[in-house]
Design brief:
heterodimer, A: about 475 residues, alpha+beta, Dna Ligase, domain 1, 6-stranded antiparallel barrel, 4-stranded antiparallel β-sheet, 13 helices, B: alpha/beta, two-stranded antiparallel ribbon, 9 helices, globular
Chain lengths: ~475, ~250
């Protein structure tokens, strides 16, 4: 399909055919969503037209929702025919905050060739309206600022039937602010309860729970309580029972859980969710229940809990494997359970691996804690400091150019006399990383002061040619 | 007892009951330094597994903890199994640590934002049981916290090392406060020996064993860990006496 030609998607009902979507080239030529197909053809000569496939769109959207369910939050649902709604409460910090969450989401979708707009706000209604009516790619509405953000928006995105919106516009109501200023009684008499309900949902005056998307493949177990429960011990007991059931069902399907969500339904019709993520597929009840019971104190039972639902939202095939029986050598324990426990508490777990680079700050990279063993270590045998400063610090130095170590240096206001020194160790810039480093040079010295404290200092430049560096001195690390 | 040798099941049961009652101390293993003088000063002939140890630096090392980190890494390198290293300030340069014999594949780092989280990660790591050594970089260590860590270590036999480093040098007087740790070390740098040629040789440290349960305090002049994590005893230098008094006055 040629990319430069305007492309529109044509929907049809009966004999009526209209544009249901248009690409940027088509929009530039004045084609709009809702325009009859014949008019579009009359306006643009070589227009590419594709028939709409609403059921395929719905399936694709559902797939996207399931992906978001695994990646972002335990509560994800399809919103209308063209959107997703995600409950980000308590899930945004995992992505570094709300801003990073939605910009990351939009960027990842763009990587897959999808154009998306995202908004975070206090209510489903407000986010729905903002994403559809504001052209900014991402919008974050601060807590409690929903009214200000939506009051000037047109009533188009209130999730009302098209006829209602048409009639309201005939009455001269264009914006949300105008509609909410109208008296409720005549409005309800004329249009039914729907406009008032949608307004209340938009402003967060009534709760609007999001029913998370579920598919038949997801393994789900639930427990209803005749009497609401609230004590932590009771919750823990039932969580353990649910985990036992879930593991049994996972075992039946030959699966192991990678993400588990515990949905807590309270008597006042609000829900909380706990998510437990695992580094490798697991169906060991003890491990799963420890991860969930670890965070029972974060549950607020309120007036009581009437239902607990446990879902393995992300399951992977898990095969039983035979481990070699150890006769002589001690088994080095698998640490994935510990990684899971600490990872779910929000610690940043990592291992380090060598990188073939002489520049100290580039010679280490972080890898996941459960990554397979690298087996390598740093090939360089020159002395390295055990503490490396994040940013080299300027020091005042008295030294002979071009290649003598400092005689005296002042660091953090303290003057130190150098008794012993070793160097220089010359490290060249890596022009393949940044072209500006083509000529850059650092000369590193190990210096020991009168007290025996050792430091790693360097001079930017080779001491002769000013192109190689500024000839300023820096302290980069502290030896033990 | 002669019966124990004949019937291992009974012997094991006796041991389990003894452990439940807490009357019989489990025979603990220890990690020797392979330096006779140091091992003699430690009950059990080395650093005890299943116990908590404290290491801090002296002088400038109270803030950067560079020598203390290398000393701890040398200990961790000589254990067998994985090591958990918990910290809040990620300034450890691992190429240096790997030069003390600790392979990067063996170390899992656990970075958090607050001190208390380091404590809880250490406790979790010590009670997990599959780790040989858990190192945590901490500013404060209260009696209660250290006792919890010690109990967790005692249960599984992992070694816990608390690496104390402070924000400012004068805060290091905190190191005098009692904790439940089995040994307490202070590693300060000393001027190294003059080499016949220009350059610096093996780093010389003053390792003060400030506190040891059921043992006497001692001081050693040691050489920094080699590529296998082993320290060595160096001949005492002439100006040692005034060095140590100076450190004491600095650390209060």
């Amino acid at each position: 399909m040629p990319a430069d030609k305007p492309l529109v998607v044509i929907a049809r009902r009966g004999s009526r055919r209209w544009i249901s979507a248009a690409d940027p080239a088509a929009s530039k030529l004045g084609l709009r969503v809702g325009m009859p197909a014949s008019k579009a053809q009359a306006m643009v000569a070589d227009l590419l037209m594709v028939d709409a496939a609403p059921s395929e769109d719905a399936t694709a959207l559902e797939r996207l929702a399931l992906w978001a369910l695994r990646q972002y939050s335990p509560v994800v649902a399809v919103d209308g025919a063209d959107g997703l709604v995600i409950d980000t409460e308590g899930a945004d910090h995992l992505q570094g905050g709300e801003d990073f969450l939605i910009s990351g989401l939009v960027n990842r979708l763009r990587g897959h060739g999808l154009t998306a707009r995202a908004a975070v706000s206090d209510t489903w209604g407000a986010s729905h309206a903002i994403t559809r009516l504001i052209s900014a790619e991402t919008t974050v509405v601060p807590v409690g600022k929903v009214t200000k953000a939506v009051v000037d928006l047109p009533i188009l995105a209130l999730r009302l039937p098209a006829e209602t919106i048409q009639s309201l516009r005939v009455l001269g109501v264009d914006t949300v602010g105008q509609l909410s200023a109208m008296p409720r009684a005549p409005l309800t008499l004329r249009f039914g309860p729907e406009p008032a309900r949608r307004l209340d949902q938009l402003f967060g005056r009534v709760a609007e729970p999001i029913e998370p998307i579920r598919t038949p493949e997801l393994v789900e177990v639930a427990k209803n309580f005749a009497e609401p429960i609230g004590a932590p011990e009771t919750i823990a007991k039932y969580v353990r029972r649910l985990v036992d059931q879930l593991s049994a069902e996972l075992a039946e399907n030959g699966l192991g859980a990678r993400r588990c969500d515990l949905a807590i339904h309270r008597v006042d019709n609000t829900r909380q969710h706990l998510r437990a993520g695992l580094a490798k597929p697991v169906r060991d009840p003890a491990r799963l229940s420890k991860l969930l019971c670890d965070r029972i104190e974060t549950i607020d039972p309120g007036f009581g809990i009437e239902k607990l639902v446990l879902v393995a939202v992300f399951a992977e095939p898990l095969e039983e494997r035979q481990v070699a029986s150890a006769l002589i050598d001690e088994e080095i324990a698998d640490i994935t359970p510990l990684v899971d426990i600490l990872g779910n508490r929000g610690y940043r777990l990592f291992r380090v691996a060598p990188v073939a680079s002489d520049v100290p700050e580039r010679s280490v990279r972080r890898i996941p804690a459960t990554a397979p063993d690298i087996g390598q270590t740093w090939a360089n045998k020159w002395p390295r400091p055990s503490r490396l400063l994040a940013h080299p610090e300027r020091i005042d130095v008295m030294a002979l150019l071009p290649d003598q170590p400092p005689v005296v240096f002042t660091w953090r206001g303290k003057r130190r006399k150098v008794v012993r020194a070793d160097g220089p160790e010359r490290i060249f810039g890596e022009w393949w990383m940044r072209p500006r480093e083509f000529q850059a040079v650092r000369d590193y010295f190990v210096v020991e002061d009168e007290l025996g404290e050792r430091y790693w200092v360097y001079r930017a430049g080779d001491g002769i040619d000013p192109d190689t560096g500024s000839h300023l001195w820096f302290l980069h690390g502290v030896f033990g | 007892m002669a019966n124990d040798a004949l019937n291992p099941v009974l012997a094991e049961l006796r041991e389990r009951i003894g452990r439940l009652e807490g009357s019989v101390q489990r025979a603990r293993q220890a990690l020797p330094f392979d330096v006779a003088e140091v091992d003699q000063a430690l009950p059990g002939g080395g650093l005890a597994f299943g116990a908590l140890h404290e290491v801090a630096g002296g002088g400038g090392g109270t803030v950067d903890g560079a020598a203390a980190a290398l000393f701890s890494a040398g200990i961790a390198a000589r254990t067998r199994g994985k090591v958990l290293w918990c910290m809040t300030r990620p300034d450890l340069f691992f190429p240096a640590i790997s030069q003390a014999g600790l392979h990067p594949d063996r170390v899992v780092f656990c970075e958090s934002d607050r001190e208390e989280e380091v404590l809880s990660a250490m406790e979790e790591g010590l009670s997990f049981g599959g780790l040989s050594c858990v190192v945590g970089e901490l500013v404060r260590l209260s009696m209660t916290a250290s006792r919890r860590l010690h109990l967790a270590a005692e249960k599984t036999g992992s070694m816990g090392i608390v690496l104390r480093r402070w924000r400012r040098q004068n805060e290091a007087s905190d190191y005098g406060q009692p904790t439940a740790s089995t040994t307490r070390w202070r590693i300060s740098t000393l001027p190294s020996e003059r080499l016949p040629v220009a350059g610096v040789g093996r780093a010389r440290w003053l390792a003060e064993l400030m506190r040891v349960k059921a043992g006497e305090c001692a001081e050693f002049e040691i050489g920094a860990p080699d590529a296998k994590g082993r320290i060595c005893l160096l001949p005492t230098s002439g100006d040692r006496a005034d060095q140590t008094t100076r450190w004491r006055s600095l650390a209060g």
